[in-house]
Structures are given as structure tokens and as C-alpha cells.
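To: structure desk
From: M.T.
Subject: fold request, one chain
Message: Could you run this one when you get a chance? Sequence is below, nothing fancy, just the single chain.
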Amino acid sequence: MIACFLTLPSTPRHGNTKDQIRRIDFLGFGILSASLVCFLVPLMQVRVKLLPSHISTNSNADTSQAGVVYSWTDVKTLLPLLSGLVGIFAFLIFEHRYAKHPLVPLSRFSNRTCILAFLCSCAHGLALWCLMYYIPFYYEFVKGFDTIKSGVATLPELLTIVFGAAGAGYVVSWTGKYRWMIWQGWAIAAFGMGILMLLGEKTPTASWIGLNISIGLGMGFLFGSLQFAIQASVEPEQLPIAVALFMFWRSFGAVS
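Reply: Done. C-alpha cells follow.
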């Protein structure tokens, strides 16, 4: 994620190296880096409930809680988390009002399409990696699969994501329209995540494979269509930084 913000979108390639270095917003970069660390570290340390207590498991492992040692209400969780959020807002204000050569030229990405694409990218990363994190726990602790078999069992999601992304990219390139594919992707993904509540200890193989296909297709459609919204909403010279921001927000959602 850090590499995304070392791009110098407004610096000519033929400029003097020292001049280019002077145009790097080191202060903004420092504020952003510190804020992200403060925000993400407590998320890795907080206790997480893996499975509801009413679900029986085929494993002797304790799945009631995972993580390190801190609860959501612990000061060691809340203080850095809130500090990170404040720091991110401070970074945005600094970039918008005070930075001479901002890392993120916010004024150039203020149109509605850009903002929604960034938000969708963040939500997509969050939903996808939550799915990839928790589904293997279902296979291991509820179905009793070993690690290798659990990995193989994720193929319905992974394969449909790949084919869905490839198909969405081809269709959008062919038709020249991306909005309907984004809507379709979110609808199918939301439906797929909703029907995952039907998974249980006695769900037969054919059923859990079928239940996971729709969520994979929805996520794949989003992979193949969201970037077109960014490409269509910015000027050609702003495309590199726009794509970098797009990938940053997807990564931010994934690590959150």
C-alpha cells in the first residue's frame, strides 16, 4: 500500500532528481503511515469470535475466541483505533488545504463516480477477505476437514471468482458499459453471502458447493468491473494515481 503513494503524478519524468525528491510530500506520507499503523494494529490484537456458541464442531480446538488478548472495549484497542481514525482525517485535511505537492490530489478525485468506486473497492476487499478467512474455519471446525482438504474445498469460490472476473471484463469491454455489471455483482454477492447462513454441520457436499458458487461469481464480477468506473471518471493523465488509489482502498479493506 505504501508504494502506491510514492507515485508522483504531477512531476515530469524528465525533471531533475533533486527537484522530484523535493516534491514528495514526506509530512503527509508520515501522517498517513502512522495513522494506518495505529488503525490496523488493534484490529489484529482484538479478540474475535470465530463461531457462534450454538454451532457444534467436529474439532477439539477452542473456537470461541481467537486473536491476542484485548477486547473491543479495552483502552489498548480503543485508543490506537481512534487515534488512527483521527490521523486519517488529519491527513485528508492536510492534503486538501496545506500540502504544497499532495500525495493525493483530492480535488481531482472529488466527483461522485470516483468516490463511490473507492468506497466499493474498500467494501469489496473487506467482504472478499472476510469470506476467504472464515470459510476455511467452517470446513475445518464444523465439517472436520483437514488443512489440505479445507484448501481444496475453497475451489468453488476461487474458480468462480476467476471466471467471473474474466467474463465481466470481457463483457464490459465488448459493451462499453460497466454500471450494470457493478450492480449485478453486488446483488449476486449479497445474495451469495446471505445464503451462506444455510451452511451447517450436516450440509451435504453438493449443497455447500452450490451455495458457494454465487458468492464467487458476485465477487468475480466486481473484480472485473469496478476498475472501469475509475478509468471512465478521470482524465488520462490522472489515471496512474487513480488506479493506485483504487488498489490502495481495496488493500485497506482487505487488511481491515
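Reply (cont.): Residues 112-142 form the longest helix (31 residues). Let me know if you need anything else for the meeting.
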